[in-house]
Amino acid sequence: MNEMDITHPPSAEQFHRTVYAIWDFQQALSALIFLLEECDLSSKYTKAQIRRFKCYESQAIISFCRPFAQSKNGSQLSLKRIQVTLGADESRLKKDVLHLRNKIIAHSDSEEMHYKGVLIGIEDPLELKAPLLIFDEGLHLSLNQIQNLELLLRKLISAITEYTFILCKSYPELFETYKIPASRSN
């Protein structure tokens, strides 16, 4: 990244969103690292183990997407502000991960639901049937996507960190703050 000239400070909301993006991306990166450390995608696992891996994957997806989602006040992370340009593959990955978050992970949109239902006959005089529902228990991201997302997260964390150091030189007063949630300020 070239030395930035920050002639105008970001708004308070832009500043908070940029700072918090560091934490969001660190959370996503940690979840991916835990997933890669514990899961060999070529191995077979129990349903409980797979669900633990899905928890890591879901946390990575949600945390990665949080800075790009528009908040109530309209603030979201600006890649232009932190001077990051995504390549075509990175843009596609970001789009795919945002789709997973918006349609599958954070919401259960019916067009993305994946399950199978079958009826099992119960041997009794009443000829009762019981439903058996089978859900997709696999991960949503491939190993290649996970590895590329890890690289993208490292790139974004580095860019935001550099941006905040440069911002601190021109506007140190922005960093002398203690931001607490509105729900705790009463």
List keywords for this structure.
single chain, 186 residues, mainly alpha, two-stranded antiparallel sheet, 4 helices
Give an account of the 3D structure.
49% of the residues lie in helices and 8% in strands. The protein is built from four helices and two strands, in the order H-H-H-E-E-H. The protein has a two-stranded antiparallel ribbon. It has 186 residues and is mainly alpha-helical. Helix 1 runs antiparallel to helix 2 and helix 1 (12-38) packs antiparallel against helix 4 (143-170). It has one domain (12-184). The two termini are 42 Å apart.
Can I get a quick summary?
It is built from four helices and two strands. By secondary structure, the protein is mainly α.
Strands, total number: 2
Looking at the chains present, what oligomeric state does this protein adopt?
A: single chain
Total separate domains: 1
Please state the average pLDDT score.
Answer: 90
Radius of gyration: 22 Å
Write the layout of secondary structure elements.
Elements: H1 12-38, H2 47-65, H3 88-105, E1 115-121, E2 129-135, H4 143-170
Antiparallel strand pairs: 1-2
